[in-house]
Specification:
The structure is a homodimer of 372-residue chains. Chain A is an alpha/beta fold and 372 residues long. Chain A has helices spanning 2-10, 21-24, 34-41, 45-52, 60-73, 79-86, 101-115, 134-145, 160-168, 192-205, 221-235, 253-265, 278-291, 309-312, 324-335, 339-344; strands spanning 91-96, 121-126, 149-152, 173-178, 187-190, 211-215, 246-248, 272-275, 300-302, 319-321, 349-351, 354-356. Chain A has 16 helices and 12 strands. At the A-B interface, helix 2, helix 6, helix 7, strand 2 and helix 8 of A face helix 2, helix 6, helix 7, strand 2 and helix 8 of B. Chain A binds a DNA duplex (30 and 30 nucleotides) through helix 4 and helix 6.
Chain lengths: 372, 372
Amino acid sequence: MKTSSRRARARRYPDDRGAPPAAKRGRPRSRLTITDIARLAGVSKKTVSRVINRAPYVQADTRARIEAIIAEHGYQPDPQARGLAFRRSFLVGLIHDNPNPQYVENIQLGILDSLAGRGYELVIRPCDRRGPGFLEDMRGFVERLRLFGVVLIPSVSEDDRLAKLLESADCPYVRIACASVDKPQRMVLTHDARGAAAAARRLAELGHRRIAYLSGPPLFRSAHERGAGFIAGLAEYGLELAPDLAVLGAYTYESGLARGRELLARPDRPTAIFAGNDEMATGVYSAAHELGIRIPQDLSVIGFDDAPIATRIWPAMTSVRLPVREMGRTAAEGLFATPKAAAAKAPVAEFTPSLIERESTAPPPRARPTRS
Amino acid sequence: MKTSSRRARARRYPDDRGAPPAAKRGRPRSRLTITDIARLAGVSKKTVSRVINRAPYVQADTRARIEAIIAEHGYQPDPQARGLAFRRSFLVGLIHDNPNPQYVENIQLGILDSLAGRGYELVIRPCDRRGPGFLEDMRGFVERLRLFGVVLIPSVSEDDRLAKLLESADCPYVRIACASVDKPQRMVLTHDARGAAAAARRLAELGHRRIAYLSGPPLFRSAHERGAGFIAGLAEYGLELAPDLAVLGAYTYESGLARGRELLARPDRPTAIFAGNDEMATGVYSAAHELGIRIPQDLSVIGFDDAPIATRIWPAMTSVRLPVREMGRTAAEGLFATPKAAAAKAPVAEFTPSLIERESTAPPPRARPTRS
DNA sequence: GCGTCTATGGTAACCGGTAGCATAACCGTG
DNA sequence: CACGGTTATGCTACCGGTTACCATAGACGC
């Protein structure tokens, strides 16, 4: 009877379609649990739990013995069980809509640098902040996963609706964004303006006077920030950005190519172009090649990001670099800050870009640099 | 007494340092649970569970009523609790050591295409298969997380030790790798050889005879595969790859630049170079620029991967394309295959690359193509 | 010697789900 | 109309941890 009953059970769910495969998979062979460790050590689960969580009230030798047993058996507490009890998962989310894979990858690596060895994992979540149901999606994501924390990178890091949502969902977060923030917030700041100013100074020093700025799209705060910094840098040399030499791109190669063609086809074309990012600067390179304009002899170009492509095109491009991986690491570290520090809403860290000089800049044709 | 006892308790962990912040965080306000839904619907937890898991033996109207209540309240079952009971998490891992961020990003996006709406999440795990403790790390990772499945991409996808480990850990996996496999396995196959053969045919048709192959490092199976395909393609036109024109690179820009310089400095330099990937092909571009060798008039170049850089350098590069995002999606789909299909160990899918012709190929100098 | 405090460890309940089994209702059939 | 088989549903234990609360053993002060 027992047997036949079991056999009947084996044929479960006769009309089952679409049940999660997880439910059908064979059981993995069971591993050691906290109960096993407690039994091996001759103590209670509670004591082992104290050791795992580094809680006090465990004798030093007891602690050492338990730790030895844990190490010997390679025991790893189950994050799902711990998370269930803690009402918090051991997952850190990266929410992003950044079109630059190199940037995203470096952020990921930086976050993982910080997570390594802590027992937390990184969950990736791309998004479209202008898509329908964006906020609902995000809410579902963070609530369902009970994320330990979230890192946001541009441009979604500039979306205050999302920040507000994360707060209401009680999900800690750190934003990476450039420095023009009105109120104190929990973020990793990048001083894009300073990098852009450095680019402006360098072009001014080389003697350029007709200098163009190829801006990123207004959706990105960095576009404004870099533009403002560039203008400020020029002003230090008594230069102004002529209105007709400030043109709007989209942070894409294609927009750089199109705007580059237009700028360089003018009779009084600029002798230098500062592009809001390397993608657009690369487009300017192509436009120059098409028109037979030599870089850097006829045209100086500076980009922003110091993407790998900056050294892969010819001539190697001068660009502005941010320590992206380090920024990712720092942002993740910020999630582990003490509650007090987190409540302070102060910036987690600030980064200033550096100008990496290569072969795409030179004095303008028929002109002499003001100094070296 | 009671009160003072509680107050004493509030000062818990007086010398606590290093306890997981999760344990210290305030509790998120509690959400709806399956018990709440059951109460609202006037049924038992078990019945709600059946609805969630699409199990049979629930009356259609009961099911509809429960689904309506779930939708109305935006209830989402807790993946940690489900995972604990299932002994399986709802996480899919991507284990990778691929140096190409564009490739990795597209794989990620493809996997996420497949996971979207299924309630599974993507966890990223870079690795170094030659580092110390590689296998132990991986074992700890997959066992601790009880991963639902893992996607592997080159070159770690070619590591049989890891495949064996995943099997012994009862962790389903799908590998993306090129087609030269000896035994049938659960993988997404890419016919890199066919793409390389197409490149060879094209160069032969244009009339090239002195053709070089710049190989990737032996660690990558794709390097052999592409080389073999290229040689086979040449053979169709009665051509051979001269031993001195097969050189070894490292899939990096720098190696492409160095090998390119050497190849192009020879008195009898090749009129065409097929590089194992776009990074190296870009290095060849730079070497040609340095030496004043024009592309494509003096030198034809074909790369592999169709990376974004292929269209951003000048002249736009002919390259071989694989549908990377689609491959990632397909690999993830493979994890959801029925147990029967999974046990079959048959390939999940196969992809053949296509040759994307751009401006970096032309007939050799002072020669006439054999046909169009 | 006794009450109080501190250090330590045990027990039961719980986190939010799922699995096994019992049971009731329904169905057609001999 | 009793009966076996199928469908629908609920009860209870359990997944692997953590917490609340309690019990006990020494140390200490009077």
